[in-house]
Write a structure and sequence with these properties.
alpha/beta, Type IV pilus twitching motility protein PilT, T2SS/T4SS_dom, AAA+_ATPase
Length: about 350
């Protein structure tokens, strides 16, 4: 006699109680939880195809079930009372249903509790222009953006419009009015919602991710016309971020895009997670670019764009810092080990040289 199919609820509770970041459910394997960057197997039975299908159906609304039947993909947010809020991706792999579920915060964490440089709080209070938060999946981009929106919400009387896929962190009105729109629920797509947002009297526009040329173009246009725009890109550092934005466009448009970006950009916040030396989680390493006159000149001139990392190194007066500068300070303060810090660095050799000069390694 076969056993009854299982519910997803106990595994969501386990994810929350263990303070894990993600839950992975796959046919033929026990569920696993990502703890401090490492995927750990739960003490649970192997999942069957019936189990994962039941889990997916337990989480999905009817419209999502129909979408999944057509496309074999579904990405959405899910809240479980008394447990938490989650971002869910359901997919098919070798014909079987799989799930990856990310635990997200119910509300925003204030910027001053995130351990971010003070200059990021200053960037959050810009009245116009474009700020980008970059880094790999799972490095806390959404958390940083939510902290910036929370600061604006608490300190400015304005209208904030967010366009997200899906909505992960909910914001209640404070001094600001916040309207959060979810792609495929409230709007057909990012660029459609952006066009509509321009008719909604926004002061601040958050775009969950800049995925295509049309969205990038609309974001730049909004930033140039007096709005404050926040968004994310999956890039490794500030210099690569600028190159990625320009590469969204055909060569004959790139000169104009460079000029637009040089004028609209206010800053780029790059993020990476590095294991803590005490094994109690991970530290956030941050690269911060602030768009000064020299940086704007380097963005506009393709012959100078390669100098952006050097300009960040020289921009301490404006609060700028490279990943390597921040990682060296974390090694110096004992927050991360030399091995982990060097592995996360942009230029490991240069970091080792600096550490030797400081007497921190032999």
């Amino acid at each position: 006699m076969s056993r009854a199919t299982v519910s997803i609820v106990p595994y969501l509770k386990a994810l929350t109680e263990l303070f894990g970041s993600d839950l992975h459910c796959k046919v033929g394997s026990a569920p696993r939880v990502r703890l401090d960057g490492v995927l750990r197997k739960l003490d649970a039975p192997m999942l069957t195809q019936e189990d994962t299908e039941a889990m997916a159906n337990e989480l999905m609304r009817e419209d999502l079930r129909q979408e999944f039947a057509r496309t074999h993909e579904a990405d959405f947010a899910f809240s479980l009372s008394g447990v938490g809020r989650f971002r869910v991706n359901v997919f098919r792999a070798r014909g079987a249903v799989g799930l990856v579920i990310r635990r997200v915060a119910i509300g925003a964490i204030p910027l001053d509790e995130l351990g971010l440089p003070e200059a990021i709080g200053t960037l959050a209070m810009e009245r116009r222009g474009l700020v980008l938060v970059t880094g790999p999946t799972g490095c806390g981009k959404t958390t940083t953006l939510a902290g910036m929106i929370d600061k604006i919400n608490a300190e400015r009387e304005c209208h904030i419009v967010t366009i997200e896929d899906p909505i992960e962190i909910l914001h209640e009105d404070q001094l600001s009015m916040v309207n959060q729109r979810e792609v495929k629920v409230d709007t057909a797509g990012f660029h459609v919602a952006l066009r509509s947002a321009m008719r909604q009297d926004p002061d601040v526009i958050l775009i969950g991710e800049m995925r295509d040329q049309e969205t990038v173009h609309a974001a730049l246009s909004a930033a140039e016309t007096g709005h404050f725009v926040l968004s994310t890109l999956h890039t490794q550092n500030a210099q690569e971020t600028i190159a990625r934005i320009i590469d969204f466009f055909p060569p004959h448009e790139q000169a104009q895009i460079r000029i637009s970006l040089a004028g609209a950009l206010r800053g780029i916040i790059g993020q990476r997670l590095v294991p803590r030396s005490d094994s109690l989680g991970r530290c956030l390493a941050v690269e911060l670019l602030v768009n000064t006159g020299r940086v704007a000149e380097a963005i506009a001139d393709p012959d100078k764009t390669s100098s952006i990392t050097e300009l960040i190194k020289e921009g301490g007066f404006y609060g700028m810092q490279t990943f390597d500068h921040h990682i060296i300070s974390m090694i110096r303060d004992g927050l991360v080990t030399v091995e982990d810090g060097v592995q996360a660095a942009s230029n490991p050799h240069d970091v080792i040289v600096d550490l030797r000069r400081m007497g921190l390694v032999a």
